[in-house]
Amino acid sequence: MTLIENNNLHLSGNKTGVILVSGGMDSLVTAAIAAKQYKLAFLHINYGQRTQNREMKAFNDIADHYKVSERLTVDVDYLSKIGGSSLTDKSVKVTKADLEFNGIPTSYVPFRNANILAIAVSWSEVLKAEKIFIGAVEEDSSGYPDCREVFYNAFNKIIELGTKPETNIMIETPIIHKKKSEIIKIGAELNAPFELSWSCYQNEEIACGECDSCVLRLKGFNESGIKDPIKYYTYPEFIQ
Amino acid sequence: MTLIENNNLHLSGNKTGVILVSGGMDSLVTAAIAAKQYKLAFLHINYGQRTQNREMKAFNDIADHYKVSERLTVDVDYLSKIGGSSLTDKSVKVTKADLEFNGIPTSYVPFRNANILAIAVSWSEVLKAEKIFIGAVEEDSSGYPDCREVFYNAFNKIIELGTKPETNIMIETPIIHKKKSEIIKIGAELNAPFELSWSCYQNEEIACGECDSCVLRLKGFNESGIKDPIKYYTYPEFIQ
């Protein structure tokens, strides 16, 4: 994929794709993939997470990089009111990463992705966008039930049933079956600006290197043989 | 249905049902039906509609009537930011009722019910509620695509797929195939306090009697032979 091919596709297509951009590396690489064929519209969700300001900065930095003019930020602080997750409920402690743990982690926000997708569909229907891109990763994503392909397929059905007959919106999950290391390699090929992304659930200035999200990211970069351009406060043992 | 039966069921059951209570008569009657078997939790959505304050008052009045302590109000003002509906976007005019019109009315908020249901599921998962009751009415509800039974059935599938394995939440739509006049009769049998409900899309003090929602309500009361206890500014021709 060269920049020239990328530009050609831009000129031929120009259908709109709404990209859910948290500011993390999965959504960054998803945006890089979508940019090959779609005019990008970026949607960012603030749901009361600890690192909200830092994620917002990453969102805008990435949007600037891709020259995205359609940007929407939605506050869903009701998710922190509803509680039940360490990401939003201060009474639930952020657990340190345990990659052997097979259950649902404390950072699970009940039905979060359905809330986010519903917002994305409302916006897409107004924009007349045809695709919603989400950087969900099934095998590598801590076992969240609403990150699985079967969930997104079922969601496409409710989009079809719950919107106007002339509306035609499909969710695309281009990295759903990729490993973190593969996502990083795809991003590197597409010149995705990893230095602008933010993954840490805990800190806002220097990434902690200890939370689930940091450890998965560092493990992915380690396996891909590519160096993560962002700084960490501490590193897991597997990085020497 | 007598009050004694109602109380007995209360004592035997005590599983929680989340009721979506807009403050209108459909949600009022739905709450009255759910109260027979479930401990009620009331969810109200402010989505930037013109009559937000009046609906909020109706919600609280109905909650007081049923002695509901679990109440949650969620602001989804992003729906007015996204726009595209006369209910929330001041650049789209509220159309006067035309009951012969078969298209999707201007009051349609893109994918509104999916947004609301996603919130209800998040709250229900935290409350460990087993049911979500919504007073959607398919045949009689102005053709909104996300008010149809087929939509709710598909939504149950995404709840099953998108929540924790131990979570067991189903959407119930007890009045989905009822006509307005039948809903009013059921409500009257259950002593639902219609005088506390609010349906008008346009006004907050005296109902307009002209918008889709007022006309459908008045038509229903007229057909049921029961008098609507609330006051209207004007009445459609079919009421003499």
Fold and architecture overview:
Two copies of one chain form a homodimer. With 240 residues, chain A is α/β, with parallel strands linked by helices. The first copy, chain A, has eight helices and five strands; from the N terminus they run H-E-H-E-H-E-H-H-E-H-E-H-H. Chain A has helices spanning 3-12, 25-34, 52-65, 78-82, 112-127, 149-162, 180-189, 212-224, and strands spanning 16-20, 39-46, 70-75, 131-133, 170-172. The first copy, chain A, has a five-stranded parallel beta sheet, sandwiched between helices. In chain A, helix 2 (25-34) packs across helix 7 and helix 7 crosses helix 8 (212-224). The radius of gyration of chain A is 17 Å and the shape is globular. Residues 1-12 of chain A have low confidence and may be disordered. Chains A and B meet through strand 3, helix 4, helix 5 and helix 6 of A and strand 3, helix 4, helix 5 and helix 6 of B.
